[in-house]
Amino acid sequence: MGLFSKKSQPANISVDAEATSQAFYDKFMFGEEKLIAVGNRAHAETLKESITKVDPQFDRVDVGILQNELLALRLEVVGLYWLHKHGLGSAVEQSIFTQEYLHGKGLDRLWDEVNDYTQAVAASVVNQAGQSKKPAIYKMRADLADKYFTQYGLGEDESDTGKLVAIAMAINRNDSETAWKKDLTKFYLVLTFWKKLNYGQNEPKLNQSANQQLMFAIRGLYEGTGEEV
Question: For the chain, what are the domain ranges?
Answer without folding.
Answer: 17-228
